[in-house]
Specification:
The complex is a heterotrimer. Chain A is mainly α. In chain A, 71% of the residues lie in helices and 3% in strands. Chain C is 72% helix and 2% strand. In chain C, strands 1-2 form a two-stranded antiparallel sheet. The chains are: A mainly alpha, B alpha/beta, C mainly alpha.
């Protein structure tokens, strides 16, 4: 009697972590399927909002992203900058240090650049100015990364929340200087720095003002790939991220690796700030980083922290943004449409990882396992 | 059995993969008695009790409670039959008070912490526990935490209590207190099952003893009618000859001299207590002992991973002839002294290797600093990985396969292979054959012998006494963090080691 | 002027209080929902959409419905946001940080998109939607508040939603301390394996805490538009208040009743520059930085003191998966 009332049904299915893992091609199939599903949902949403033919919508999207030469350059510049920030945050992530403060590190690096351009622009010879600018932006970014890293290494202060707060401090500091150096006075915006002299502007290669940035980021991508894959530092980062216990066992100084890596990560964010301020915008505002610090986290994570895959993921995200903003102008929607699309696609991609890492086993219909 | 039987197990069998954890086990527990379940590590004691408490489900066999057959599918089912288990690893929320932990998950009664605390006080008074219901778990000593676990079970009205190695973490005084409480519960008519391997505890506490060995039920005896040596023999069995090659040590020299080593954990427990021994070159020194007697701390102290409170570890450097004290040096500093120390830790994937990295990168862990540039030299580790795969017959698709995809035996081959490759002068291995099949195990023994004949001082922490006796030259026995004896493996017997393992020297009375 | 300042500070603090109470409930279950800023945008815009529809369609304007409809729309919108987060992190075990940030991107986009669309619909000259009639219903205060002098103004001059925020925070604090549900929720966030062993459904608690937390946070968005901003929705008007709400969670060391005081303090810090004479624009920006600096100081101080009660929930940000045996 007790037996029959106590016999419970096994659940319909249970979830098992894959130990062996599935073949790479299957994993990619799942990812591609998830992107396809996401695009389908996005198309449905778009059609509902605009009443357009979905094919038309996609066509508009592609045109918006790569329809003209100018758009292609613009797209590539945006991919490059997003990729740059993503590369910067990646070493920390591989170490399982959740640096979500890239936005602030980029801004502070950009501010350092801008202040060099404003304060030293007319005093130093150009080559020296570039050296100082370069050093200042790297150091500023590095310091912004160092502060949370130090507290993490020393007292295990939660780095996610710490770096998040550092973003807004950076934003407010930039706002402060926007008033100090505002041009015209009192406008709260700095305006184009050294508009006439172009002092402190990164040189343009040929007639393409974006080319230099793109080349720098391309080089950085290769460098980061090599750094993470082939350098001793990269190896230490990976070991610390995978297992601090193992790292200690082989004699790695975990604290030092955390601090060193965040210095590096922050410095690269500072470099991104320099490229943005000196290379393209020639000004600084609270919006200079443009949310890239946050988007970069998704780029890096979606690419499994692999710099080469990150080219792809940052391209996809920027492509979508540009495409969606074209849809919004063409069909009379507004700019924020692209953020909705980005959100939906990321939801699908991160959701799909589950099916790569876990398998679902349905209940076997054999009754023999029950006690007799 | 009579009406006095609380639990009866009939032919209970549980198989995990190819390992038979319990085979046709029969057991009865009476009301108002304390039953000890005795057995070595891996004898299936805990598995059996997990079956009773609903964590595992048996493959065959019956469980009768109060004469009626029951099915226990979950800890909740177990509770409904009045069975409560106190696990070795406490399941408590650190920032909660004792009361909050005790009522956690209970749905039956109205929620009132103060009233629950009253009830807890009443239970405590009834059995003689000393506990402050409002104290937070993180402020508690291990023994207090254990008390909370016991009260948690009593609070839910359990009549049958299962305690898994309850004294492993207690001081002698705390152990005595616990035993007093348990005896009081027995008088109250409760049935108590205590899993242990400490003979003196069995003899002083329990009414009857059931012995398991390698998953099989050996028998049950009345405590009053038995003695230590009979129980030891039931527990360890007759010696089996294994045909492991053993050469005599060639020119043994003192390599590692350990004196008065003492390590105290954060809870204030002495994990190592005045440990002294010498490891000689060309010799295998076995470390025997019940799991958790300080083996891990000992090896980690030598490897520079454990804070040492007292004592010295002196390394006699064969190259320079000098003596280096390794006490409280980091692994890096030890290496910089020119000490060639290899260490196969117990936790292979959590400490010795990185599960998500491939074989080459794992082999590189020891050697990645080589070379003057900032870049890794993957060629030598690649060659080494290939060599390990080839020589130790590692079954793997390739050298670039992540370690986590390999089977346990192959993982261990990679780890041991890497540690041997650095041409050590001291080689330490903790449970290197745990979870390995026979062939892989013998391969590991041969590797240890090879190191020995190369003049390496080998320290081998093992759990199978037959192996220790056949493989080692000397065996040091650890009991509760102390060396209880160092014996010559060629002349010793399993009984002698078994007694040393369970021996508890010092001022504690044997019978309470 | 002091009274006016405190009043404004409290009104400024109420959206933060909603946000932080919601986030505290969520974090107590071990979920670090960085999507709260997005959730608050969605809560706000859903309320705006609801009331916009009602103002346009209703032939007879009933104040009760004018409040109820936006309220329900807001709750529904934030519920869906919480559900998305829960499905992705609790069921599909996606990374919490990435999911949260994506949710913020999505939510802010959602808010600005529909806000922008409405702005286009009304064809106004200003880039905003104005819902004065609805706002007046939301802003209804106790009729006698004005007559009670300074104290009355300080205590009784706010709208129902503001009191609701405080009440929710107090109820939550009570729930955490004195009820079984609160105990179980805290256990889930501290040590899910132990909670699981005690028979508590970890997944159910994570879902419920996240969804209820989102709905409360969403009300913060609604309050901001309908009360603080007098029914005027303008894109990005809500600003970074969502992140400030997350900062407030740390400042309040995960205690909702501390959050009440904290939110007023943050509100005060946020607007204090308007009340200090002769401040330049640039100095004002420095003042706006203080809530974040204070938060970091609290975070560092808490980790330095290392008092166990004041730490973040131990499993915050980590997925829970009961390994198959």
């Amino acid at each position: 009697m007790a037996k029959t009332e106590k016999q419970k049904q096994e659940p319909l299915f249970h979830i098992v972590k894959r130990i062996i893992g599935i073949p790479t091609w299957q994993a990619w199939l799942i990812r591609i399927a998830s992107v396809a599903a996401a695009l389908l949902v996005c198309a449905v949403v778009t059609v509902m909002l605009t009443g357009e033919n979905p094919l038309n919508v996609y066509k508009t999207m592609i045109e918006g992203a790569i329809g003209t030469e100018r758009r292609i350059w613009n797209l590539m510049q945006n991919v490059a900058m997003l990729l740059c920030v993503s590369l910067a945050v990646t070493p920390a992530f591989r170490m399982r240090f959740w640096n979500i403060g890239a936005e602030g590190q980029v801004l502070i690096g950009g501010l350092a650049t801008a202040s060099c351009m404003i304060l030293l622009g007319n005093r130093l010879p150009t080559p020296l100015l570039f050296v100082v600018m370069f050093a200042a932006s790297l150091i500023a970014g590095a310091v912004w990364g160092l502060i949370p890293a130090f507290f993490k290494a020393q007292w295990n202060t939660n780095e996610t929340l710490f770096t998040l707060m550092m973003n807004y401090i950076a934003i407010q500091i930039v706002s402060y200087f926007s008033y100090i150096w505002s041009n015209p006075k009192g406008s709260g915006a700095i305006g184009v720095i050294n508009l006439n002299t172009q002092v402190g502007w990164l040189p343009t290669i040929g007639s393409q003002k974006y080319l230099l940035n793109i080349l720098v980021v391309a080089a950085l991508t290769v460098f980061m790939f090599i750094y993470l894959r082939f350098s001793k530092h990269g190896y230490e980062i990976a070991v610390v991220g995978e297992s601090e216990n193992t790292a200690r066992y082989i004699g790695i100084n975990v604290r030092r690796v955390i601090i060193r890596t965040m210095l590096f990560s922050g410095a690269l964010c500072g470099l991104a700030g320099l490229l943005l301020v000196s290379g393209t915008d020639h000004t600084i505002s609270r919006a200079t980083a443009g949310g890239r610090g946050f988007t970069a986290i998704m780029v890096s994570w979606l690419a499994k922290f692999n710099p080469l895959y990150m080219i792809l993921t940052s391209f996809i995200l920027v492509f979508l943004q540009k495409g969606a903003s074209e849809i919004s102008t063409q069909f009379g929607l507004n700019d924020a449409f692209s953020e909705i699309i980005t959100g939906i696609i990321i939801f699908f991609i991160i959701g799909s990882e589950f099916f790569i890492n876990y398998s679902i086993r349905f209940r076997e219909s054999k009754k023999g396992v029950q006690a007799k | 059995m009579g009406a006095n039987t609380a639990i009866e197990l009939k032919n209970v069998t549980k198989v995990f993969g190819s390992i038979v954890a319990n085979k046709d086990v029969n057991l009865t527990v009476n009301r108002g008695e304390i039953l000890s379940i005795l057995g070595e590590n891996g004898s299936g004691k805990t598995t059996l009790m997990n079956i009773l408490s609903g964590i595992y489900f048996p493959d065959h066999g019956q469980i009768l409670i109060n004469g009626e057959e029951v099915v226990i599918r979950s800890p909740k089912d177990a509770f409904s039959y009045g069975i409560g288990m106190i696990h070795q690893h406490f399941k408590l929320v650190d920032v909660f008070s004792a009361t909050e932990n005790i009522v956690l998950g209970l749905e039956e009664e109205n929620f009132n912490i103060r009233r629950s605390a009253e009830k807890i006080k009443k239970i405590s008074e009834q059995y003689g526990f000393e506990i402050d219901p409002n104290k937070k778990i993180y402020e508690m000593s291990v023994s207090e935490k254990q008390t909370v676990e016991i009260i948690k079970v009593l609070y839910r009205g359990a009549d049958i209590l299962i305690l898994d190695e309850p004294t492993a973490v207690l001081t002698p005084q705390e152990t005595q207190k616990l035993f007093t409480v348990l005896r009081r519960m027995r008088e109250d008519g409760k049935s108590i099952i205590i899993i242990t391997h400490k003979l003196h505890e069995v003899l002083s506490l329990s009414d009857r003893v059931s012995v398991l060995r390698k998953g099989e039920y050996i028998g049950t005896v009345n405590t009053a009618e038995t003695n230590e040596s009979e129980l030891t023999e039931m527990m360890v069995g007759k010696k089996v000859s294994l045909n492991i090659r053993r050469n005599d040590p060639v020119d043994p020299q003192d390599r590692l001299v350990i004196k008065g080593l003492t390590c105290i954990s954060r809870d204030g427990v002495k994990q190592l207590d005045n440990v002294s021994f010498t490891a000689r070159s060309g010799e295998i020194l076995g470390i025997a002992g019940i799991a958790g007697s300080g083996q891990r701390e000992l090896l980690e102290a030598v490897a520079g991973l454990q804070k040492i409170d007292e004592g010295s570890i002196v390394y006699n450097n064969p190259k320079t002839g000098g003596q280096d004290d390794l006490r409280n040096k980091t692994p890096m500093q030890i290496r910089d002294l020119g000490v060639r120390l290899s260490f196969v830790p117990e936790d292979r994937l959590g400490m010795g290797l990185v599960a998500n990295m491939d074989i080459i990168d794992n082999v590189m862990l020891r050697s990645y600093r080589r070379g003057k540039t900032a870049f890794l030299e993957r060629k030598p580790p690649r060659n080494l990985a290939e060599r390990i795969i080839h020589e130790l017959e590692v079954v793997t698709p390739s050298a670039t396969t992540p370690i986590r995809r390999l089977s346990g035996g192959n993982v261990q081959k990679v780890l041991v292979g890497r540690e041997i490759a650095s041409a050590p002068t001291v080689f330490m291995a903790a449970y290197p054959v745990r979870g390995l099949d026979i062939n892989s195990s013998y391969l590991i023994y041969n590797l240890l012998n090879e190191q020995k004949s190369n003049g390496v001082a080998v320290i081998f922490v093992g759990e199978d006494l037959d192996i220790l006796i056949d493989l080692c030259d000397r065996i040091a026995v650890l009991g509760s963090g102390r060396i209880t004896g160092i014996v010559d493996a060629r002349t010793t017997t399993k009984e002698e080691i078994g007694l040393l393992m369970t021996k508890h020297d010092g001022g504690e009375p044997n019978h309470g | 002027m002091i009274i006016a300042f405190i009043q404004r500070a409290i009104m400024q603090g109420i959206p933060l209080l909603f946000g932080s109470t919601g986030e505290i409930i969520t974090e107590k279950s071990g979920n670090l929902n960085l999507g709260i800023p997005g959730v608050m945008y969605v809560g706000g815009i859903c309320g705006v959409i609801g009331s916009f529809m009602y103002e346009q369609k209703a032939t007879r304007f009933v104040p009760f419905l004018a409040v109820l409809i936006p309220l329900l729309c807001c709750l529904l919108g934030s519920l869906v946001m919480g559900l998305i987060y829960s499905v992705l992190t609790a069921t599909l075990r996606a990374n919490q940080n990435v999911t949260g940030l994506a949710l913020t991107t999505f939510g802010v986009g959602f808010g600005n998109f529909f806000g922008g669309s409405l702005i286009k619909l009304v064809k106004s000259d200003m880039p905003s939607v104005v819902l004065t009639r609805t706002s007046n219903c939301f802003k209804a205060t106790l009729p006698f508040a004005d007559k009670l002098g300074a104290v009355g103004k300080l205590l009784f001059s706010y709208s129902a939603l503001a009191y609701f925020a405080v009440i929710i925070a107090l109820i939550t604090a009570y729930l955490f301390k004195h009820t079984r549900v609160g105990l179980h929720l805290r256990a889930v966030g501290e040590n899910p394996a132990t909670a699981d062993a005690a028979g508590i459904s970890v997944t159910r608690y994570k879902y419920l805490a996240t969804i209820i937390g989102s709905m409360i946070a969403g009300l913060g968005g609604l309050y901001y538009v309908m009360d603080y901003a007098n029914g005027v929705w303008s894109n990005d008007g809500f600003g970074d208040r969502g992140w400030l709400a997350i900062a407030l969670v740390i400042f309040a060391i995960w205690k909702p009743d501390f959050g009440i005081i904290g939110s007023f303090l943050f509100g005060g810090l946020f607007i204090v520059h308007n009340y200090i004479p002769n401040l330049t624009m640039s100095d004002q920006e420095i003042f706006k930085m203080t809530p974040y600096v204070v938060t970091i100081l609290v975070l560092v101080f808490v980790s330095l003191r290392n008092r166990r009660e004041n730490q973040p929930p131990a499993s915050l940000g980590l997925p829970y998966f009961r390994e198959e045996r």
